[in-house]
Amino acid sequence: MDKEEAIRMYDMTDYYIGLGLALFSSGFIGASFIIKKKALVQISLGSGRRAANGGYGYLSNWLWWFGLSMMAFGEVFNFAAYAFAPASVVTPLGALSVIVAAILSSKYLNEQLNLLAKIGCFMCIIGSTVMVIHSPKEEEVDTLEDLLQKLTEPGFIIYTSIMLIIISSIFFYFGPRYGSSNVVVYVIMCSTSGSLTVMWCKGLGLAIRETISGQSEFTNWLTYMFIVLLITFVCIQMNYLNKALDTFNTSVVTPVYYVMFTTLVITASAILFKEWEHLQLNDIIGIICGFLITVTAIFMLNTFRDLDMSRSHFAWRTRQPVTRKSTIEESAQTSALIKNNTQYGTRNV
């Protein structure tokens, strides 16, 4: 069996386990957005300092902690999914969290979900499905030593450096100045740190899987480095995600976060595992098409969310009879024709 065949062969049982865990994860995470947003709304109506202004009053709110627990369960499922399936397959399934959040926000937060937004949700599922079907498959990494070798390659070091520069610039400059007026600022912070978090999850998942199989990796310093990095970057994500949810509409934050996070995770995974080297042309075209469909869906959710449009309203418009209104010029011409035509006789019009 040559190298390419070895890369493409996966245990389908593990693959479907990872797929199922990813679906459960997206459901929990999507619901957690709404619960945490509900808690932040309660705090903003009180006398506490809002999270968008640097406040931490949500730490004393039980509903926020319940939402955080939901997200924790979702992240656990997500973490487990990364241990069983490729990141380029697990990550696009986060589109389900967009659908869950959009539906629940319209029910519990009174946020509008019109016909175009519903179509956008459906398109988001289609785009993610296409991306999953054509997604690149990771190169096998059997040990932490193999992973360490990939982590120290120039491509991933450059990517990590760029992400750290972006995180630092938002933390010190762009966040305080533009974070409260532009949703992209906080979401970029969550997405950049999140893309690195997934890589640390893969490393820690590999260490746990090797330990369960009989080779303990908790004597390896790399395992503890992954734990520290994972905790650090998850805290960054949670802090800025709270700010984004407290400042902007949930139906905007969730889709934009999905697009940026998915793009960066696939990019990081491609750089680290060199997935694109083994893709066929039809798979590349499929991934691009799936991504464009998803971006179009996000655009619909974001741009037309406040448009007063429903299915019944659209149906009423299509049933209206078409009436032709006469212009002033047409009326004048008709009057002159009647006046000059002998069959009508002579009369003043």
Give a written overview of the molecule.
With 349 residues, the protein is mainly α. The chain is 74% helix and 0% strand. It has helices at 3-8, 12-45, 62-84, 87-90, 95-108, 115-134, 144-151, 154-178, 183-212, 221-247, 250-273, 281-303, 311-319, 328-340. Helix 3 crosses helix 9 and helix 6 (115-134) runs antiparallel to helix 12. The chain is globular and about 95 Å long. The N and C termini lie far apart (96 Å). The model is unreliable at 1-9 (pLDDT under 50).
Question: What is the distance, rounded to the nearest whole angstrom, between the alpha carbons of the first and last residues?
Answer: 96 Å
CA gyration radius, whole angstroms = 27 Å
Question: What is the subunit organization of this protein?
Answer: single chain
- Estimate the strand proportion: under 5%
Brief overview, please?
This protein is an all-alpha fold. The protein has helices spanning 3-8, 12-45, 62-84, 87-90, 95-108, 115-134, 144-151, 154-178, 183-212, 221-247, 250-273, 281-303, 311-319, 328-340.
